[in-house]
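stuck on this chain:
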Amino acid sequence: MRRFPFVPRCPGEPAPEFEQLRREEPVSKVTFPTGDTAWLVTTYEDNKTVMGDQRFSRAHTTRPGAPRLQPIPPDPNSMFSMDPPEHTRLRRLVSPAFNNRRTAALRPVIEREVDLLVAALKETGPPADLVSLFARRLPITVICELLGVPAADRDTIAGFVDVLLSLTQYPPEQVAATRAELKRYLAGLIADRRADPRDDLVSELIAMRDSGDRLSEDELVMLGATVLTGGFLSTASEIALSFLCLFRHPAELERLRADPGLLPTAVDELLRYNALTTGGGLLRIATEDVKLGNVTIAAGEAVLPAISSANRDPSVFHDPDLFDVGREDNPHLTFGHGMHYCLGARLARLELEIALAGMLRGLPEVRLAVPVEELRPQGGHLIRGLPELPVTW
């Protein structure tokens, strides 16, 4: 039985095992660092099935003794960890807070922050680390601005998220303590906004009702935690991997520089092409025996959709290993599928597009300062970003 996660040959690229498994064993048993086992699903259609079929449950992953990928079980009060009808109710309540209006209102915030970060890079001078000085700073600023987290607390929040998305980097006790600390912080923020409402997402969620229904205190806290964990590190890592991908494909980078109108398709291609996490989707538990491909998954067994593999499936994507900033037909699964489709997808796309546009405009000669072979992905972590990305210009 294979050990999971697999080790990629290059940051941002899916590990070679995924391609082999898609061809030879598309539903295969793997062992996690926790010692638990799961079925790894590698084709596009099977990924959509696992993410869209309610017989594969997120809520069951919170039960005592359930198989898990990360050091501690998921929190049952998180929307990530719910099935219908609880998930349906919560998503209906919170979806308006992530609509086009609120995302559009963040555009000037993102543009201003990108301009400030690019100016700071110029002032610092080359070489510079694009991860610490740009890729991490932009999304933590945006997500804290969205929620209403004070600027002085942003580094603390970023540190919490780094620990919470660990696989083997931190011991389970530290991960559990960090989750509790983040929840205490958010409970304090909610209490403050309840007494003094402002124009931020936390205040809006506190006031939100639907036919007399409202979010409970635990739901408010966990929604804040979900927004922070989903909106910071994944976006930061995607920004860094996107620049690395463009540096590795200089002809496509030149196309983008020559025609900024390609940015929207380039963003979706980067989201498809980059292998952002160890596998991709959220772990699920089969609630009954389910036949998937040639395998019968027994009730109680875990299933992991490998989105980074699905996004390279040649039955769906023409020449899937080709990076093409003009790719039009691009139904990638990076934001998921079905009921757990990412609520922050619009915001993530907007941040990535503005980050690319601002950097290419402000530092048109930016390039790698070290050979690609010297770069290593983040180890021991669910998110396979880059610890650093040295650039020059």
